[in-house]
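User: Please predict the structure of the protein below. I'd like the answer in structure-token form so I can feed it into my own downstream comparison script.

Assistant: Understood. Taking the following sequence of 57 residues as input:
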Amino acid sequence: MFNRIKEFFRKKSEEKKLQEQRADELTEFFNSHRAQIKRLDEVRKKIQKDYPFSCGL
């Protein structure tokens, strides 16, 4: 019984570590691409302004 409880908390701990690792990876990815995302957003806004009747933007 004690081993089951211990195993349960070990698995929960591993899951939490994996979630934190994934969150860190996503944060790192976003931060590394932030400038590119910002530039693309500026281009999108300019296109919308220059061509207000374009479809799909």
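That's the full token string. The mean pLDDT is 89.
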